[in-house]
Amino acid sequence: MTRGLRLVRSTDGRFAVQSLTLNYDVAPHVAVHGCDRTAHTQVPNAVRADVNRGAYRIAVYSSEVNCNVNGLSHGRIARASVLIVFLLLGGCEGGEDGTNNNALGPNPFPNGVPGMGLVFVKHELTAPYVAPAVAFPTPPYVIGTVNAGNGQLDVLDLTSTGLGPMFTPPRVAYGAATADFDGDGVPDVISAVYSPTNVNSYAYLFRGSSTGLFSQDMSFGADSSNPAGGYGYRGRTETVVVADFNNDGAVDVFLPTYTYLDSVHDLSGLPGTFYTSGPPPNVYNAYQSFLLLNDGKGNFREAAVAAGISMHSTLSGIAAPTTDPEGNQPEGVQAVDFNMDGLIDLYAGGHLFINQGVDANGVPHFKDMALAWGLTRSVLQGPAPWFPDDVLPDYFLVTDEGAKFIDWDNDGHLALLLFRWNWGPTHGPRLFEFKDSRFIERVYALSSKTATCHNPPAHRTAFFWSSRPLTTGGISAGINAYDLDSDGLEEVLVSGDSTGSAIFYNYGCGFVEVPAGDLTQVPGAGTGMALADLDDDGKIDVIYERAFYDNDTQAPGRGAFTVEVVGPNGERNQFGRVIQVFPPATSRIFTRVVDGGSGYLTQNQYPILVGTPYAGTHTVKVYFAPLTACTYGGPPRQPVVLQFSIQPGQHAEAYAPSEAHPIGIAVITSGLANH
């Protein structure tokens, strides 16, 4: 329980102080090539963001804190930030009152979307699972459950499986990811934490085995000293991503952490919990984010500072140049080969770090292209037209509560989705299209015909449209995206707060919230949605809160196939790899990414399920890294593009290049899964 003060907006727009008592049981086509040497740009006053300026600028909180978090409580993962969000957003009540409905525009489908009928059927889980991270074996399952092969998930006893230490107090488990880190073909698990660094709470590595049991690797992070005392990779981490950033065949880990070190940027307002009195550095945050490079046997070395992606504050005393002199507060993160040059890039904390190749020590180097490509501080802090006063305070470092790259309009280019955590789920995320080497935010639905937009709305209407009230005072958390009805267009899912989740149907011109059976407006508690085809029926199912939702949508005349991108020997190590699908007799291109963690606190299934409304042969291109290493500062190299044909109802294993097969090889089998 916490008592304090909050600012409440009255009907006349003024703010009044109100006492607050909270009970919580929280348990291809870009200019920068990957091998060009370029100096890392220092970005002063790095991107920050995220709530209503007027609500917080004069807010002063007085709190009594007793934060004794006991891991899982009542089926929810412990998280101190839930308390923080409630404290902050106490000054945002009635945000929907400021909505400019003229700017929002009318419902593009006042009588419902013709021919659309998403249907999801809920199946309760008997206990909380570990995290919404889907392991790569077939059939897929989230960590902490087992899939018997019929699409039914059963929750495992964490203690008997060896994962029990993940939730032993004072540890606060939060983001997690899974991959084969030691090359034995079995999923391992990285479990990060959400806690200050002065608590004995740090990231764990659990090694999997062929028996299904896990064992904690006690040496993981033992050589990482912590300024607040103790060892291990500590700090407040949310979305964990896994990918092979240096193209050596081993899966690496990126742990984004809060790195501001002064109370000016601390949004918790909780003295004694995240910061101490006195001059900075006085905040119990990590001094840097962590890039953990894997030697192929599951042994890791930290390389984020050398790579240029540590996002460290100058107050840390780290002498290397930084993109974030004041620190950062990264939430949503994704590893993706954005420019399709075969090197895995990284979005985190408002930065788009483009991979420039590896140095002689095997360390990848990155260049932040966000500012040059239009993701400026003012853009990320700016309001939506229907909330013109929602300009974000200068002292906020957080820019999103979820990030995801999708090809929303089948034009062959990835666009960036960012979800702003002060918006409620019905607002949907922001979408930034990449056109002519610039990110441009698409605010309104298309107004003219395209390959996907056959019937543009008659009137200007919001790109994400919902009939429910909008707000700048929500506490929703997280986004995800997948094609839910096999029409080749990806839908967007927003996790819910007390108002319930929102499913946005992609109608080719924009997005509109639609009912989705049992998945309609499901309340949430700060978790994300993981996506996987649990029952091998060619339709993506959803794992959310303490349930999974079977996709029972009927889509006559549509089909699906799967593309599983693997290493030269079949290793599941190609996270972040991009494929493009060219259906027959159309200009549309489906661009998809092997997911190694994205959206928010989630990791989707490893094989890419491609829904399609087209029959016949589809052409697929996979963009692999070149066989010859792309050296930092060396000559530019081109990706190796594997091309093959596939039809609905088939499964492709796309093998990375090797000496025997220098452009890779594709093996096509019938059925959607690799059994």
Structural class: mainly beta
Portion in strands: 25-35%
Total strand segments? 37
What's the multimeric state?
Answer: single chain
The main sheet orders its strands as: 22-26-25-24-23
Distance between the termini: 50 Å
Secondary structure: helix percent: under 10%
Main beta sheet: strand number and arrangement?
5 strands, mixed
Rounded to an integer in angstroms, the radius of gyration calculated over CA atoms is: 23 Å
Sequence stretches where pLDDT stays below 50 over 5 or more residues: 1-34, 36-97
Q: Choose one word for the global shape.
A: globular
Number of helices: 6
Mean pLDDT across residues? 85
Question: Could you walk me through the main structural features you see in this protein, from its secondary elements to its overall organization?
Answer:
- This protein has 675 residues and is mainly beta.
- It contains six helices and 37 strands.
- The strands form ten sheets. The chain has a five-stranded mixed β-sheet with strand order 22-26-25-24-23, with no helix packed on it. Strands 3-29-28-27 form a four-stranded antiparallel β-sheet, with no helix packed on it. A four-stranded antiparallel β-sheet has the order 6-7-8-9, with no helix packed on it.
- The N and C termini lie far apart (50 Å).
- Mean pLDDT is 85; it is low at 1-34 and 36-97.
